[in-house]
Amino acid sequence: MFIRTLLSPSYILCKTKSSFVKLLVCLCFSLMAPPLFLLSLLLSFLFFLSPTLSTNSEGNALHALRSRLSDPTNVLQSWDPTLVNPCTWFHVTCDSNNHVIRLDLGNSNISGSLGPELGQLQHLQYLELYKNEIGSKIPKELGNLKNLVSMDLYGNRFEGGIPKSFAKLKSLRFLRLNNNKLSGSIPRELTALSNLKVFDVSNNDLCGTIPVDGPFGSFTMESFENNRLNGPELKGLVPYDFGC
Fold first, then answer.
1. Which pTM value belongs to this model?
2. Are 175 and 166 contacting, i.e. CB atoms less than 8 angstroms apart?
3. Which of 29, 99, 119, 206 gives 227 a disulfide partner, CB atoms 3.0 to 4.6 angstroms apart?
4. Where exactly are the structural domains of the chain?
């Protein structure tokens, strides 16, 4: 009974969002295809379709980014949402499975803002957006990029606080947020980023004290200069957000 339910056309049509799959199901049942043959056909089709669905999702996220940006020099002209996947777009690098792993838009004369859609690029390893005119707040959804190794957002107009969600970026090695308009304190959650080798928040409007735990014990004072920071925290004596 369970297998019959799984193979019933109404169940499959209910569970799938692909119009092509729906058409395939209807066609097979109209031809009275044997259920086991239908199941095999559907599984094979979905197996080959899955990379395309993934890259289409990533392409949608990147196209949403493009809609938020002003691009006077047309560096994003190749970002055509009608293409099969974004791996043919300039400034986008994919791996052998057609997953987006790198976004290179540094020094591209773009402005605007970032949106939560970037958090859908689950395979992204390098996010390079430095030296542009991008503003507004840094989306907390960037903390969902669990494979991220490097995030370069320096030299923009980002404001607001550093997202605490960045503490989930366990693979992160390089985080450069310098030369923006960031404010608030440095989240203590970031001390859990054991792989972090480079951290630069100089030339912002950050306040409070500088963390000393975890990787922060090895960062030089140049990484924190030209803020309203009160120096390294003295545990038990001064609250970390003192002066904010």
1. 0.77
2. yes
3. 206
4. 51-232
Which residue in 211, 112, 204, 119 sits closest to 168, CA to CA? 119
Task: Answer yes or no: are the C-beta atoms of 23 and 30 closer than 8 Å.
Answer: no
pLDDT tens sequence across 186-201: 999 999 999 999 999 9
What is the number of alpha carbons within 13 Å of residue 51 lying toward its C-beta? Answer: 11
Angle of CA points 171, 207, 110, to nearest 5°: 60
Query: C-alpha 49: how far from its chain's center?
Result: 23
Residue 20 is predicted with a pLDDT of 45
- Under the banding of pLDDT at 50, 70 and 90, the label for residue 134 is very high
Q: Can you list the positions of beta strands (E) in the chain?
A: 69-70, 92-94, 100-104, 111-113, 126-128, 133-137, 150-152, 157-160, 174-176, 181-184, 198-200, 205-210, 228-232
Q: Tell me, which fold does domain 51-232 have in CATH?
A: 3.80.10
Write b or e for each residue in 109-140: b if 16 or more Cβ atoms lie within 10 A of its Cβ, otherwise e. Answer: ebbbbbbebbbbbbbbbbbbbbbbebbeebbe
Residue 14's identity, in one-letter code, is: C
